From TrEMBL:
This is RNA polymerase sigma-70 factor (ECF subfamily). The keyword Transcription regulation applies. CDD domains: Sigma70_r4 (cd06171). Residues 45-112 form the RNA polymerase sigma-70 region domain. GO terms for molecular function: DNA binding; sigma factor activity.
Amino acid sequence: MIGVDEEPQRAERPPGWSADPQPAPDARALLAEVAKGDEAAFDQLYEVIARPVFGLVRRLLRNAAQSEEVTQEVLVEVWRTATHYRPDKGSAMTWVLTLAHRRAVDRVRSEQSAADREAKVGSRSGARAFDEVSESVLGRLEQLQVRRCMSTLTELQRESVLLTYYRGYTYREAAELVGSPMATVKTRLRDALIRLRDCLGVG
């Protein structure tokens, strides 16, 4: 479990990551603005936290696809629960990585529970009990919901989300890859995040 005194710089970085020569944005200040509903502040905050979050999640889950899904869930949770952050309890990055750690551990436990249930059922004869089937379904609902909501995005929005949130590209790198102005990529991401938030039913 991540301690409140752990330095955010120790979070795992994806391959190819290099330090920005410019001073890093103040995550605590950005998070305070996000708590007020400032979407522009979230645009900046995500550039600070997306890669460390993905690195931590990938280290715990190993599976790339699941790591991408959990990273997206964490980023949405940061937007939704920014008002819960308390500066006196630790740094903003530590708070974010704690959310990521909890989500990743929950996914590991969910997958393990599903595997255990399947093994248990496979070792005995007869039909599975209704409550056993229900538990298996409920354990995968969140994952399916994220996939369903991703499918509601436009092709351009989905492309921008995949490049930045999932693949770890910066705005500038994503813009170069798709051949669009950086401002356009930012707008697509902001609109995609709002649509995902509404689809997932979070406030």
